[in-house]
Amino acid sequence: MVSKNYETHINHKRGQRLMGELGIKAVIRMKKPYYGKKEAYVVSDNYLNRNFVASKPNKKWVTDVTYLIFNGQKLYFSAILDLYNNEIVAYHVSRRNDLKLVIDTLKKAKKKRNVKGILLHSYQGFQYTSRQYNNLIKKYQMKASMSRKGKCWDNACMENFFSHFKTECFYLYSFKTAQEVKDALNQYMRFYNHQRFQKKLNYLSPYQYRTQAA
Questions:
Q1: Which residues have CB under 8 Å from 68's CB, separation 6+?
Q2: What is the C-alpha to C-alpha distance for residues 148 and 152, in angstroms, rounded to an integer?
Q3: How confident is the model at residue 69 (pLDDT cuts 50, 70, 90)?
Q4: How far apart are the first and last CA of the chain?
C-alpha cells in the first residue's frame, strides 16, 4: 500500500487497522442487483388505432385491468369488452395483478364465444406482453393489438367502462370484505349487460342490442 501524497510505504493490513481505529471507511459504489435473465416479451402493433366501431359482434374486443381499494384491501378486476355493443364478454377478480388474472379472463371468454379471428386490444402491461399470453392468443387464432406507451386514449372504451362501474356501483358502498365486492360486481355486471340501456345502442342494453341484431 503506497501513500503518494506522503511518499511512504505502508502495509495494507496496517492501513486497514489504522482506518478501523480512526473510524474511516472506504466509500464504494454499490453494484446493481442481478435478478437473472429477463423473460422475453412480445409487443404488438396498435392495429385497433382508436377505431372503436365494430360492424358485428366478436370482431373487436378490448381488455384491461383496474384495481379496487376497500377497507385497507385491494382487488384487481380484469374484463373483456366487445366494441360492437359494449358488452362485457368475460371478467375475473383476483387478489393479485398477475398473468393468471388475464389468462383466466381470456379462458372464460373462450368458453362463451367463438374467438377465432377476433382482434383483442390491450395496453402494454407485463401480463399482455408475456410469451404465455401471446402464445394463448395464437392458439385461439386471435390477433393481438396493443396501445402505444403513454397513450391511454388508445384503450378509452375500456377505461370508460371501468369509470361507469366505479361511479355507479363501487364508490356508492363501503365494502368490508372481498366477497362483498365480488357480490356487488356480479350484480352490476348482470345489470350492465342486460338492463342498462345506452344511447349508442338506440337505448337498448348490450344484450338486447346483440340479440335484436341476430
A1: 74, 75, 76, 77, 166, 170, 181
A2: 8
A3: very high
A4: 87
